[in-house]
Amino acid sequence: MVRNIKFIISVFLGLVIFFILLNALEKTNNYSPNKISNKIETNFTARLLYKNKEVSLEELIKDQHLSIINIWASWCLPCREEHSYLLNLNSINNINIIGINYKDNEVNAKKFLKELGNPYSKILLDPDGINSIELGAYGVPETFLLDTKSKKIIKKYIGPLDDIKFEEIVKIIKNEKI
Amino acid sequence: MKKFKLLIIILFFSFNFFNYSIAKNSNQVDKISKNLRCLICQGQSVYDSQSDFALSIKILIQKKIEEGKKENEIYEFLKNKYGEWIVYDPEISRKTFLLWTLPLILFVFGGLLIIRKVSIK
User: Fold this and answer.
1) Which residue of A35, A37, A129 is in closest CB contact with B80?
2) CB neighbours of A15 closer than 8 A, spacing ≥ 6?
3) ipTM score for this prediction
4) How far is CA B91 from CA A23, A128, B44, B72, B84, in A?
5) Of the ranges A2-11, A19-28, B55-64, B89-98, which one carries the lowest mean pLDDT score?
6) A132 has a chain B CB within 8 A of its CB
7) In this predicted model, what pLDDT tens digit does every residue of A73-100 receive, in sequence order?
8) d(C-alpha B48, C-alpha B98), whole Å
């Protein structure tokens, strides 16, 4: 009898553990950026690319309703790919795009913009990558769509923009304007 | 000549002190960055990683220490930006309650078992 109970209990325990592990297989424990706060810190200052002047990001976006903050570098290949989307967003949808030049050489950055066009209204320099951390960014390229008044991130794209992300941004801009 | 030697000695030692002050700070940076998870190279700490992200975090820690920020304040700052996942120590909350208490419960349970076995003998 005692043996029987022991057997049943061990089978039961085994089954419980089995199902817990089975369940856990489907759960990804990858880090998801959706879980973190969607507010952004904009009161840090940095030097501008074309002027030898320190400004805060706050100043650059305060009289806009929506802003896009794009982290880029001339050495980053995906940035080259997404550049045409940014140009489109700037020219067609007329949205304020602030660039953050991540760990880059100023000469190369200017060359990059000369070659591909400049979609940014202002560009802040970030030679150490500290300002990007202030924004909660991971690396290049990264794009934030920002509600300027509430400082809320409407959308955050890690990695280069593509057709789907571009459509999404255009849709949001149109909805917000109406 | 003597004065010249003295000057060299003074210079030598002043550089020594200079290096020492950097080393002291970098110990602190190492300590903090060992407790941080590198988010874009999972499985490594910020201390171990040479990725751009980790390097920037190390510079940031250095800067914050120079500003006089305490270790805990730096963790709080980064948790605010990147969520709790960035620190290796999970906070005690309803979700992680079992994680923290289970070892203790098992330890007490095992202890009780041993005591019972010994007292029966």
Assistant:
1) A37
2) none
3) 0.73
4) 24, 30, 20, 13, 8
5) B89-98
6) yes
7) 999 999 999 999 999 988 887 888 999 9
8) 30
